[in-house]
Design goal:
Blueprint: E1 13-16, E2 19-22, H1 24-32, H2 38-59, H3 64-85, H4 94-114
Antiparallel strand pairs: 1-2
């Protein structure tokens, strides 16, 4: 149900039981004047993964290194997605593939040394 004259038609709206409201993303763009791109969101997800892993290592009975390792493993999924599934260029270079292999070997060494 659309309410004419309440919100400009350029904003995506969502309906709920009390009426029509602009989406959270539209409000974010209206008030701050910015919109996050795909790679900005990937960077934020990587930082959140590492921060969450560090926090988990502090507040749980597991060691800090195990929590950070878990966060790094989760962050690796975002790195993989940005590098290989949705690369900023058509085909990843051999150097990018080598860097990914080195990263995974590094994570494996951390995992083995933590056990």
């Amino acid at each position: 149900m659309a309410v004419e004259g309440v919100y400009p038609s350029t904003f995506p709206v969502r309906e709920n039981h009390s009426g029509v409201f602009p989406s959270t993303a539209a409000i974010f763009r209206m008030e701050l004047g910015i919109s996050l791109g795909y790679y900005d969101k990937i960077l934020a997800a990587i930082a959140a993964s590492l921060g969450g892993g560090a926090l988990a290592g502090v507040i749980t009975p597991y060691s800090f290194r195990i929590g950070l390792l878990a966060g790094a493993l989760l962050a690796t999924l975002f790195v993989y997605d940005a590098t290989f599934r949705n690369p900023p260029r058509p085909v990843p270079s051999p150097q990018a593939k080598a860097a990914a292999v080195v990263w995974h070997v590094f994570l494996g060494v951390l995992l083995i040394s933590s056990l």
